[in-house]
DNA sequence: CGCACTCTATCGATCGATCGATCGGGTGGT
DNA sequence: ACCACCCGATCGATCGATCGATAGAGTGCG
């Protein structure tokens, strides 16, 4: 059994939720994509919303653990920041569907599941915020209103999922490196900018999401 | 007659599409919000999709004319870029609902209406792209892969609609000025950075969308 | 003026289709 | 004999959309 039915359901949901949105995806669409009857779906997914919540918790969890692993033990603020950016960008480029679902469908979650997802996202953003603050204290960064800069950079990097195509001319490393430059420049880091360790970031993404 | 029924329908659609998405908003939701029966809706909106398409065309059109007005006659690339950023940010901060609908619901449009919207968006992005290219040629900007930088900056600035609140501590001018700095730094503009003419940008937004 | 007619704006009722979800009944491996 | 897995049939609710009808504000004519 190469791919289990449960796995097919999960993949169908990620694909369709990303492409048509939660409310735009019907139970029968999911069943067809997963090659199952609509009744059999319920053996795996609970409700449709449970399925969405599971995807979001899982994807956000992987993003968060990935970020923690990528910066573990790194003290230099610029290197930390560069790695956070690269990990974020690589994740969004390699898994645009999961990240689109996470970014666009929070609003459909009812309050219970919403709280868990928002908590994960806040923990993730806190990693960015603390790194920026540390860089400011160390004199490595220079930006007023660091919270605004954090929001801006997160939106910038997350946008990758909306336009990057793996079939394009740009490699993952070029993409991630370029975004790291943009972010560090925006933060007012001193030139010349050192590129973050992309090998580590790529490896962390592979350890969290599986090999490419 | 202070506000016509047609106007109420339009406003209800903008509000609900932004908050719950196109597929998450029912005809009966629209009717209740617009204080009309669901049957009367059809006197004004054509189909539900026509209503969405109209909102998107109108909002994108205003953004595009605003941008053209804001940079008309301006030759200095940094000033042009700063104005484009400021106009974009101010628009997204002042009309988060319209811009959210434009940014998030393109996928539900059927091919006919989709084409018109995508064409408008491409024309808008071309304005950014040409300004960046001009800045590179003039030696005012220094960035590899300007198309990637353009995408990144557009996503960064558009993200404002997802988090900015007019009730927060940040004024529109501070917000727009801050984003202009971030964008110009990312583009590798020479410090010290001159702030764009925010008065003009604010006035243009008011001329296109009405006074605040 | 008064009457017939038209047009806009609105409604309650209802259409066929589709929604998410459930039920009871298989089938096949252990 | 059990249990995980899967399905056809079907549920009540809701979907987007349309129906025929009405109230009221004009409009043209004798």
UniProtKB/TrEMBL annotation, chains A, B:
Residues of the HTH tetR-type domain: 3-63
Keywords on record: DNA-binding
GO molecular function: DNA-binding transcription factor activity; transcription cis-regulatory region binding
Stated name of the protein: TetR family transcriptional regulator
Pfam families assigned: TetR_C_24, TetR_N
Organism: Prauserella shujinwangii
DNA-binding region listed in the record: 26-45
Gene3D superfamilies (alphabetical): Tetracycline Repressor, domain 2
Highest taxon in the source lineage: Bacteria
